[in-house]
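Late entry, written up from scratch paper. The run itself happened at the end of the previous shift, but nothing got recorded in the book at the time, so transcribing now.
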Amino acid sequence: MNTAPHAGEARDKLAADLKAVIRDAEELLKSSGEQAGDTYQSARARLASTLESAKSGLSTAQESLVARTKDIAQSTDEYVQANPWRSVGIAAVVGLAVGVLLGYGRD
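Output as recorded:
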């Protein structure tokens, strides 16, 4: 039951790490601007293209995640407003289950 927060933290850390890699690679590309050789220039162009693709993909994934989270929150809000007593019952059962599971962990 507690895997969702850890998954979210891991996803956030991965996104932050990817952004750092992109930032570092961009700095490397800027600082190595005048290197000689066609092979180097070709590799540099491929890296720049890959970086742009990664930034675009990260941005799209982030937008999708935010939109999905908003949709889920809205659906949950609508359900709770339409079924307040059922929601209270579900919350009570979940709370009881968590309490029982935590109680067994102390034995």
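Residues 22 and 51 are 6 Å apart (CA to CA).
(Scratch paper discarded after transcription.)
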